[in-house]
Design goal:
The protein is mostly beta strands and 378 residues long. 10% of the residues lie in helices and 41% in strands. It contains 2 helices and 22 strands. The strands form 5 sheets. Strands 1, 2, 3, 4 and 5 form a 5-stranded antiparallel beta sheet that branches. It is globular, with a radius of gyration of 21 Å.
């Protein structure tokens, strides 16, 4: 009798585990989930493929699978002398979050089973597409805040992982929502999270327009990274005055805190055009209403709320005609590492969108890597 009860309880637990996995894993991840479950019941342990790190001596950038046409929105972490990157992958009919590793931050090895995080079910808040992710390490857990798109609203969700590859969405999502009829009523996206003085601080891009144009940068705080309180004086950074390089749009921000000063690098543009079916930018890998010539500016703050833009912005400009970043240089991620500022950013030309690399001694004067881009979808 006891044996029968144990068998029934064990089977019930297995079914419950499978049910939870199906709920929390996106549709594109389910074939991998099936294989993992078959391996689990056959051998008593889960399958695990570790990504190979390409050394700088190999001088070989491994391309991402051809189904993906765009790589953008990098979030980089250095852990145990190895670099880890999560980034947005865009295909013709699907989106996801990819993962790659590197020994030097320049030569990257994409995870062979990308994407590691896929869109939700079609009727969910993130069922249309996924966007830029921000990842922090909390003890032994990776925490991701990511943009989700339902086709009507764009908001920020949260997910966790033990290895940075297999992710589980929070039960309550999204965690950072749009606000009624205010300035961020339709889009709350591209959040950058900083854990500072025992508090989570988020800077995010908000807009009343579904396509995020025009947009400003807002600020919010949280005790746990799940329940957020927006600053009543939002937005904290607005587009510049008419005629400025960023007078139509600001966003895609990344922040460092050094001593008592916050430093922000953000994207801006003064070119904002309505999207039409016959326009040339509809032939780009990622059609957009943002027009072209997005560049990267710099700003500083003593409290993370009142910001002063650098007078000689932008600090990272688009490349010349024919270069890989001739249309856009945006979506920066910056860290201070090995005595210098290192930036990973999205560049775009008429043919593709990819991720590049640049360095600086002061965070203002930047030198682009001569062999950019360093990570490209083909």
């Amino acid at each position: 009798m006891c044996f029968k009860i144990s068998v029934v309880l064990g089977a019930s637990l297995a079914v419950f585990i499978i049910f939870l996995s199906i709920v929390y894993v996106g549709a594109a991840d389910r074939p991998r989930l099936d294989n993992m479950m078959r391996t689990f019941f056959a051998s008593g342990k889960t399958a695990d493929k570790a990504p190979r790190i390409i050394s700088s001596e190999e001088k070989n950038i491994k391309p991402i699978k051809s189904v993906w046409r765009v790589a953008t929105g990098p979030s980089v972490m250095k852990e145990n002398d190895a670099y880890k990157m999560w980034f947005m992958l865009i295909g013709k009919e699907k989106h996801g979050i990819g993962y790659a590793t590197s020994s030097d931050g320049i030569w990257w090895s994409p995870y062979p089973e990308n994407p590691v995080f896929a869109v939700g079910l079609s009727d969910e808040w993130d069922g249309e597409e996924l966007g830029t992710a921000e990842v922090l390490k909390e003890n032994d857990t990776y925490v991701m805040w990511y943009r989700g798109n339902s086709g009507k609203l764009q908001q920020v969700g949260r997910a966790t992982s033990k290895d940075g590859i297999r992710w589980m969405r929070d039960f309550i999502n999204p965690v950072l929502n749009v606000s009624g009829n205010e300035w961020d009523s339709t889009a709350v996206v591209d959040s950058f999270i900083l854990f500072d003085q025992g508090v989570y601080k988020a800077w995010y891009r908000g807009s009343v327009d579904y396509d995020q144009a025009p947009s400003s940068i807002g600020f919010a705080v949280s005790a746990d990274g799940k329940r957020w309180i927006k600053y009543k004086g939002n937005p904290v950074i607005r587009p510049g005055l008419q005629g400025a390089w960023d007078d139509k749009l600001v966003g895609d921000q990344t922040i460092l805190k050094e001593r008592n000063e916050y430093k922000m690098w953000y994207a801006g543009t003064s070119y904002l055009q309505e999207q039409k079916e016959d326009e040339w930018w509809n032939r780009l890998p990622w059609p957009t209403r943002e027009g072209w010539k997005k560049e990267i500016g710099f700003a500083t703050s003593l409290d993370g709320i009142v910001w002063k833009k650098y007078q000689r912005n932008p600090v990272v400009r688009v490349g010349g005609n024919g270069e890989w970043d001739s249309i856009k240089a945006d979506n920066p991620f910056v860290m201070f590492d090995e005595g210098m500022y290192k930036m990973w950013y999205r560049g775009q030309n008429l043919s593709y969108s990819a991720i590049g690399y640049a360095t600086s001694s002061d965070g203002i004067q930047w030198t682009k890597y001569s062999e950019n881009p360093i990570l490209k979808a083909q």
